[in-house]
Amino acid sequence: MSSAAQPLISLEKLTKRYPGVVALNAVDFDLQAGEVHVLFGENGAGKSTLISLLAGANNPSGGTMTLDGEPLHFTSVADAQGKGIYTVFQEFSLLPTLTVAQNIFMGWEPLIGPFLDHKTMRRRSKEMLAELGFDIDPNATVASLSRAQQQMVEITKAFHGDLKVLILDEPTASLTDKEVDHLFDFVLSLKQRGVGVIYISHRIQEFARIADRITVLRDGAKIGTVDMTETDEAALVEMMTGRAIDEIYPKIENLQGETLLEVEELSTDGVHGASFTVRAGEVLGVAGLVGSGKSRLFRALMGLMPHAHGTVRLKGQDISKASTAAIIRAGMYYLSSDRKNEGLDLAKRSDQNLAVNLIMGDKIPNRSAFVDRKAVEAEVLTISDHVELSEGYRKKVVSQLSGGNQQKVLFGRCFGQNVDVYIFDEPTVGVDMGTRAALYVLIKELCEDGKAVIVISSDLPEVMNLSHRLLVLAHGAVTAELTGEDMREDVVLKYFFDESGAQS
Amino acid sequence: MSPTPETSQAQPGAFKLIRNMFVKVGVLPFFLVAAVIIFALLSSSFLTMQNMVNVARQSVFLVLVSMGQMVVLISGGFDLSVGTAIALTSVVSALGMVWLAGVFPDAIWLAIVLGACMGFGAALMVGLVNGIGVAYFEVSPFIMTLGVSSVGAGIALFLTGGVPVSGMPFVFADTLGFGRLWGIPAPVLVALVFIVIMWVLMTQTRLGTQIYAVGGNIKAAHLSAINTKRTLLMCYLICAFIASVTGLLLTARVESGEANLGASIALESIAACVIAGVSLRGGIGRVLSVVLGAFFIVLVQNGMNLAQISSYMQMVLLGALLILAVIFDQFRYRLILSGG
């Protein structure tokens, strides 16, 4: 990019300090009109901090921000939006009980006298959605939409005023390929209109399709800015992590022991007729798009959703109708993909979180009503060491830990009981590369210790690199079971969209 | 703006100490010190040994109920029907004792024990209905216990026609109401026993761990092999049982079964818990702090009496104190999450 033209946005020595932490350390960044500039980095690298400053959600501790050469000082997110900078955060600002049209016009409501002009609102919403190529009924309530559709509504909201800069935070995390195509076409059309796009994503495969330049952040500092044409995936990953990609995934031995889990013709809301088995000493990967039912299938296995049909046998024992507590006691554990809402007690310390599972589980041979505090404390220490949770974090309230350390605590919870089948649902979601590598080693150890491990993941490289067998789901049905050479990205992607399984 | 992080790092030691104490135990120590100073200035008879013993004895009932309330609060709910459990216990056990004393005139203790059991049974029904409603039908604790409180109060009034049940065995009141063992009044002894039981329950047993876990994050608890529904049910049963014991003690004290006992105790017990640092979001709270919290409420009431503040004005102050405590609780919870 030539630096001759005045950049749309220019950040100089931008710094954000929190007590005890420098979240963003003197970062320079610029964005040209009509450019897609990707921000790339691990969680905690400072991407979110940077966009929170640009979005007006936070104030910088140091450095300057300019828009069209004018210095920027935001008082609020609305202020930033008024100046033409709109951010689509991962967590949407939609009101689920209102309609799509009402959400799009939230704060911009057309009026007839003092009254809302619902008719215009609906018509304009319809036009705006159509122009962006989003197939959504403006009269639907937001709660009834899929996450992907909600995101489209969120994006549509950006198109009221004079949009200069659109910031997209992980926009494709919950979209199907068709929807991603749409989004990218739309981003390219924005470029032609001269809008600058700041794009945050982990999906390195996408960059070649839309990025002009990429800025890599690590630990709050800028590592560098590169032109897309002059770089490749391996180089970017190395910039991001400081290590080469093949150091991340361990080689896992496949022991192929006895069959531990047999699932026959299982059906539940959004899943039909799924059958498969899992053996001791293997990692079974489960891949599929959002909405393919891959998570629901295993939630149903754990008794978290009612199942309509089918049998589930764990070590020969029928657990189809058992409660979650009974299933865990029978030897199967589920690690939730949502550590904040389902996995951890955020207001408690790490060691307290770990203790709950130990007290409920059978690892400590104490089935009386009283808790053997000493034994629990000793075992909490062992587990903390095992998951490599640093000493300083053990007595800390979990909500204060980074995503990676929270995930370590969550992993620690599954070592609280003796189980043979581990189900990891999105085990590394929102976790930095260094922690990922540590978590993969834990998975490897479990598998090589003769446990059955199931890894459900939307991160295709992750499931493909860890698994011995790969189950692909589409439209609520198992469309393929791949092994060895067949576990290739193109093969997997083909089965993502396979309709044949749905009819059977 | 930007300089705030730096200034917060350069806090003086005393301020930091206060802050850490606040995060750890809540607002109670500060309230307690303030109350003692204010009332000592207002009335010379406040800080006397005799008055303090008096406060301790009066606080027994609130201490007991507050510990039950605490269990429910920690589980993430609350119980507005503790007063009803007390009234029902009082009415049912009194009716039972009067009737059974007529049936077995020679075995008066049998009549007392059976009558007390009937009272416990009635209160446990209250707890059972609350627990089933909250745990299995997922009714909000507020509506469930409010509804049950009306139902129970109605039944208590219906049973007695609104007239106190008199003619209870004298030995009942003499023992449980005014009796002493080693010089300690019987109600105080009962409270001490329950303080120990509750402390053991909450800190040393699996059930205690389950209650904290369910209140902290019910979904995570469910995924940790905890039967969350049963745990919630147990909480309401425990709360109702302790309220019932309190009801029996109060009945012995007033020597009759009364349907209007415990009218204001729901609010007072919640206030005692919140002031003592029990979080309204569940998952956080300690038995010994709650004992102190209940003691504090009674201390304030006693102080206001000595300072000749009218009972109407006392209601105003107590309500204000509760709201203030909740505001501090909100603030404290944020500090806990952000690492204060």
Summary keywords:
heterodimer, A: 504 residues, alpha/beta, 6-stranded mixed beta sheet, disordered C terminus, B: 340 residues, mainly alpha, two-stranded antiparallel sheet, disordered N terminus
Give a structural overview.
The complex is a heterodimer of chains A (504) and B (340). With 504 residues, chain A is an alpha/beta fold. In chain A, strand 21 (469-474) and strand 22 form a beta hairpin. In chain A, 34% of the residues lie in helices and 25% in strands. Chain A contains 19 helices and 22 strands. Chain B has 340 residues and is mainly α. Chain B has helices at 4-9, 13-25, 28-42, 49-58, 60-74, 82-103, 108-136, 141-160, 170-177, 186-204, 206-216, 218-222, 228-254, 265-275, 287-306, 311-338, and strands at residues 180-181, 184-185. In chain B, helix 6 (82-103) runs antiparallel to helix 7 (108-136) and helix 6 (82-103) packs parallel to helix 8. The relative contact order of chain B is 0.18. The chains are: A alpha/beta (504), B mainly alpha (340). The A-B interface holds A 17-20, 59-62, 302, 304, 323-325, 328-329, 334, 336, 341-348, 355-357, 359-361, 369-371, 373, 396-397, 399-400, 413, 416-417 and B 1-2, 5, 8-9, 204-210, 212-213, 216-217, 219-227, 279, 281, 283-284, 333, 336-339.
Describe the secondary-structure layout.
The complex is a heterodimer of chains A (504) and B (340).
Chain A: E1 9-18, E2 21-31, E3 36-40, H1 47-54, E4 62-67, E5 70-71, H2 77-82, E6 85-88, H3 100-104, E7 111-112, E8 115-116, H4 118-132, H5 147-156, E9 165-169, H6 177-192, E10 196-200, H7 204-210, E11 213-218, E12 221-227, H8 233-241, E13 259-268, E14 271-279, E15 283-288, H9 294-301, E16 307-314, E17 317-318, H10 324-330, E18 332-335, H11 339-343, H12 350-360, H13 373-386, H14 391-394, H15 403-414, E19 421-425, H16 433-448, E20 452-456, H17 460-466, E21 469-474, E22 477-483, H18 489-496, H19 500-503
Parallel strand pairs in A: 3-10, 3-11, 6-9, 9-10, 15-20, 15-21, 18-19, 19-20
Antiparallel strand pairs in A: 1-2, 1-4, 4-5, 7-8, 11-12, 13-14, 13-16, 16-17, 21-22
Helix pairs in contact in A: 12-13, 12-15
Chain B: H1 4-9, H2 13-25, H3 28-42, H4 49-58, H5 60-74, H6 82-103, H7 108-136, H8 141-160, H9 170-177, E1 180-181, E2 184-185, H10 186-204, H11 206-216, H12 218-222, H13 228-254, H14 265-275, H15 287-306, H16 311-338
Antiparallel strand pairs in B: 1-2
Helix pairs in contact in B: 3-15, 4-15, 5-10, 5-13, 5-14, 5-15, 6-7, 6-8, 6-13, 7-8, 7-13, 9-13, 10-11, 11-13, 14-15, 14-16
